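hey so i finally got around to running the thing on that chain from the lab meeting. sorry it took forever, my laptop kept dying and i had to restart like 3 times. anyway pasting the input first so we r on the same page abt which one it is
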Amino acid sequence: MLIVEHLGLGKILNRFYKPFQHVYMIFFLLISWVFFRSESIREAFDYLSIMFGFGSQSFKWDILSDYLNLGTISIFTIAILGSTRFFDKLSDILMGWTGSSRPFIRRGTVNILNIGTLAFIISVLAISTIFIEGETITSFIYFKF
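ok and heres what got predicted. didnt touch it at all, straight out
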């Protein structure tokens, strides 16, 4: 993928809209993970064919409700917002509301925002660790090597 991008595809991709560039990167990243996770090339191509709907099994809609619950929707929402500049913009908006002429109020607001950001990041780390430790199997792909 890197070779193809260096041969000219990268220049073409730089002209596209930024969200499309992110979708392109995530798409090929997900495909490459299949090759790292599979034990053989045959298994990887079988998995890819099932991913894109060409496998022997049809899609089971009832299984979707097992995975797409309130917890995963919340995690996806936080992940999507965290991968954009949403929280930077929110911080700028909150700083605009505290446009006080007294510097100690502005300084206190900055400290509250910094502490809130740190608390949010630590809580996401703690919740992620709890979810990982609660699993009975290891989903980390590098443990196989």
